[in-house]
Amino acid sequence: MTLAAVRDLREFRDPVSAEGPEQFETDVLAGFVLARASAGLADGTIRGDVGHLDQMRAWFDRPLWDVKPADADGYFGKVLRGSPSGTRLARAQALTTYFLFLKLRHKVEIHRMTGRAVECPIDEMNRPRGSKDTALRIPPTEPEIKTLFTGWGGEPATCRKFAPTARNYTASKLMSQVGLRVSEACMLDLADIKWDLGRFGKLHVRHGKAPAARARASGWCR
Question: pTM of the predicted model, to two decimals?
Fold first, then answer.
C-alpha cells in the first residue's frame, strides 16, 4: 500500500465575485432559518433570533463572521449596557447559535473567501450574565406532584380563610391541567367559564400572549 497525493476539490471552485459575499451572506442566513425550522423551533422563536442577528448586523455594518471578541465587548458592554438583561442574553444566545451554525456548515467557505477562521466572539469572559444563566431545572416527580395537590385538596376544609385557599387551588389545577400561565390564570373571571360549550365546557383565556393564548382559549376545562 502506497500513499497518494490528494488535492482538495474545493480548490477548483470559481473565484468569488464582487456580489458574491453579499449573496453568500443572504444564503447562509436562509440556511440558518431552515436548519432551525428543521430542529422544530417555533416560527416566533426563529423570527426573534433573526431579528437579533439583523440588529447586530446593522450595528456592526459588516458580516457577523467578521466580528471579533473585542467588537462584542464594545457592543454588549456599551451599546446594550443599559438594556434589560433578557435582551442582552437573548441577543448573545442568538449570536452564539449562529456562529455554531457557521462552524458546522460554512467554516471552510468563509475561510477561503475571507481568510478568517470562524470563531464566536462571545466567550466566557464577555458572555452576558443574567437570570437565564441557571442550572437545568428538574421537574418534580409524579409522587411529588400528587403529594402537592393532595395537600392542597384537603386544605380548604381546615384553612383559616376558605376563599383564598380555594382560589389558589383552582388556579393551580388550571395551570397544571390546561397549561395556563400564571398571569393568564390571574386574569380569569367566572364569566370566562363557558359550561354550555362542549361536554366539559370551555375556558375563554382573554388575557394572554398570542398565538399561544388563542390555542389555549379552546382548551377543555375539566
Answer: 0.55
Assigned C-alpha cell, 197: 360549550
d(CA 60, CA 56): 6
pLDDT tens for 59-96 read: 999 999 999 999 999 999 999 998 888 899 999 999 99
Q: Comparing 163 with 52, which gets the higher pLDDT? A: 52
Residue 208 clears pLDDT 90, i.e. is over it: no
Query: What are the residue boundaries of the structural domains of the chain, listed by start?
Result: 19-114, 142-217
Mark residue 179 as left, alpha or beta (left: phi above 0; alpha: psi -120 to 50; beta: remaining): left
Supply φ then ψ for residue 83, to 5 degrees: -75, 160
Q: What residues contact residue 45 under an 8 Å CB cut-off, 6+ apart? A: 36
Asked whether 110 and 126 are in contact (CB, 8 A), the reply is: no
CA distance 43 to 36: 9
Alpha-helical (H) ranges within the chain are: 20-38, 43-60, 69-74, 85-105, 107-114, 142-154, 162-177, 182-186, 212-217
Residue 132 identity (one-letter amino acid): K
